[in-house]
Amino acid sequence: MIDGHFFNFNKLDYVKKKKSGCILCSLIDKTTDSPDLEIYRSLLSAVSMNLYPYNSGHIMIYPLRHIESICDLSEEEEASDIHRLSAASVRILTDELSPTGFNIGYNIGENSGASIKHLHLHIVPRYNNELGFAEVIAGKRVVVVEPVSLLDSLRVKYAQL
Length: 161
Ligand SMILES: [Zn+2]
Hints:
CATH architecture: 2-Layer Sandwich
CATH superfamily: HIT-like
CATH topology: HIT family, subunit A
Distance between the termini: 34 Å
Number of strands: 5
Bound molecules: zinc ion
Strand content: 15-25%
Number of helices: 5
Shape: globular
Number of domains: 1
Radius of gyration: 16 Å
Structural class: alpha+beta
CATH class: Alpha Beta
Order of helices and strands: HHEEEHEEHH
């Protein structure tokens, strides 16, 4: 029988493992001059507007820990936390923007379109008359700059989680 405490570890040490030169780590640490687009932060993960949104409401969810593959997510904690935030994001973005659909996915490794190695889950609301998901998440276009009012509004809604 596996000891229930086997999967527990010191969370403070856990979240401190950051990688220098990583834009997401520097956003997490607030050591960047980039605008603060963070919407919400849990114990293990953060939700942020995408740095380069391809659609209105395009957000990212990422572990606070610097890892580069879903294979490295801890299932008991990080994976379930990211799933919880994904579901909440679909609910909140639907309420806020009334999209007609969503694409949700990771880009992992070379040739995937990933421009940032730090694992991050894209959540892209979809609206009528658009390009395909591959074009969207592979960075083939930049469509919108998010209004500050949307960021503020989302922060209020996520704060209720
Ligand atoms: Zn990182």
